[in-house]
Amino acid sequence: MDDTTLDSLRMALAASPDNQPLLRVLLEAYLERHRAADGYALLSERSPTSLTDPTARFAAARVCLEAGHPERAIELASVDDPPVLVLRARALLALARREEARAAYEKAVAQSPAVEDLDLKAAVAATTRTVTAGPGGAKLRVIANDDTDSSEVERLLSSPQKPITFVDVGGLDEIKEQIRKRIVLPFQKPSLFERFKKRVGGGILLYGPPGCGKTLLARATAGECKAAFFSVAISDILDMYIGESERKLSAIFEKARSSPPAVLFFDELEALAGKRQYSREATSSKLVSSFLSEMDGFAQRNQGVLILGATNVPWAIDPAFRRPGRFDRVLFVPPPDGPARERVLQIQLEGRPHAADLDLKLLSSRTSTFSGADLTSLIEDASDRAIERSLAEGRDSPIRQADLVEAIRAVKPTALEWLTTARNYARYANESGQYDEVLEFLRTHGKE
Asked: How large is the angle between the packed helices 54-66 and 82-94, nearest 10 degrees?
């Protein structure tokens, strides 16, 4: 806005002093041109109560604060609206009323996280301490911002993952029922199973497309059994020095045996249990043999230890692992069906601001072959859209149906490529019917 236009608006305001929308335009123009003092001059003869338009009142409070009159800004910033509360916090901070400023800021963020300001947060959270500058020296007031306490130390030392159960896993009802009968019950009623000479523990191999809940299912199984959960990463085992990988693997099994009931979970199992005939290095073959030896319940003390493995490429696992007593139970974890997708969407929306009229059934019908990870990505994409809108509006804007519909267009299912590959193995390499579940899934969903 140029000077000529600005002068014209001032003349118009002089002719119509009660025109509060016009006053707001003028005040915002002065703020943009960093001429808060000129804007304050327009307010000098007006009382705070005369400004009834909320937007004009907010602009006036900003001008007063910028012009160095925080007391007047506090008078104008009297409503409990998040942006107004933030401005009030700034004005209170300018008057060194830090506790009141902190209360106003925290109230604003509680109403709408979109107004969060890390610099202001640090300023209102600072504490004032009095120190003496040397023996007999003057007392100085210093501002500190050290909010580290014992709870932070506890957080760093505690496990980042909380125990979960089957309630936290959307869908997969048939698989959960199989696990409950064949795995959880032996842990819960060991005496009954001992009478039938059934041991508690053993090995289960979960396979299926990536992102369909194999790792989550393993954690939930441990939670259902109330067992210790040990998740083994590839980097925990593989070592460049000869014999070290085998030693680490043995130590991990020994740790699980020493604290039954325990669930030992190996993700990306093919990296540790790949087919030996395709291995070019003798060390890889030795690691597979060591793994097989550790799993043999007759030779080792694996009572009370459940060994879970997960893989996206079951055809790459050495056949020796499928022998009874090792991974003798193999479960196919497919992409979630319609009701399961709806449940996953519900779980992912919990705790996030979202509209009450979301049609999750419709969204479920439009996300066929989406994995659980794809559905999570869909909600994340919709959340990004809601956050952008919240920042633009200066207040919380919940996730809407339109956000989810747009997210469906942006997020593509990742399970289709896996299903294409699995279909070929299920058709032409289905020894002993090991991929019958895959064929059944493909027939049911018309993908064969």
From this structure: 20
Taken in order 394, 398, 402, 407, the sign of the CA dihedral is positive
**Range picked from 164-168, 395-399, 400-404, 431-435 for highest mean pLDDT:** 400-404
| CA dihedral sign, ordered 192, 194, 196, 200 | positive
Q: In sequence order, which residues have a C-beta less than 8 Å from that of residue 209 and are 6 or more positions away?
A: 312, 334, 335, 371, 414, 415, 418, 419, 422
Residue 334 three-state SS: coil
| Under 8 Å between Cβ of 63 and 55 | no
Instruction: Give the domain ranges of the chain.
Output: 3-131, 166-332, 338-413
Spatial CA neighbour of 62 closest among 44, 74, 50: 74
Q: Which amino acid type is present at position 396? A: D
| Architecture category of domain 3-131 in CATH | Alpha Horseshoe (1.25)
Architecture, CATH, for domain 338-413: Orthogonal Bundle (1.10)
Question: In one letter, which amino acid is 177?
Answer: E
Determine contact, residues 170/372, Cβ cutoff 8 Å: yes
Q: Which residues, including other chains, have CB under 8 Å from residue 411's CB and lie 6 or more apart?
A: 370, 374, 377, 378, 381
* CATH T-level topology, domain 166-332: Rossmann fold (3.40.50)
**What is residue 314's three-state secondary structure?**
helix
Give the tens place of pLDDT for each residue, 365-386: 888 888 888 999 999 999 999 9
Burial degree of 6 (CB within 10 A; 0-12, 13-18, 19+): middle
* 293 burial type by CB count under 10 A (0-12 exposed, 13-18 middle, 19+ buried): middle
Cα angle 227-228-230, degrees, rounded to a multiple of 5: 130
pLDDT exceeds 70 at position 291: yes
- In 3D space, the residue among 368, 272, 365 whose CA is nearest the CA of residue 327 turns out to be 272
User: Does the pLDDT of residue 155 top 60, yes or no?
Assistant: no
pLDDT at 288 over 70: yes
pLDDT digits (tens, 9 = 90+) for 127-138: 555 545 455 555
pLDDT for 150: 40
Alpha helices in 240-325 (DSSP H): 244-257, 282-295
Q: What is the pLDDT of residue 389?
A: 92
Q: What is the pLDDT of residues 195-215, one digit of tens each?
A: 777 766 667 888 888 888 888
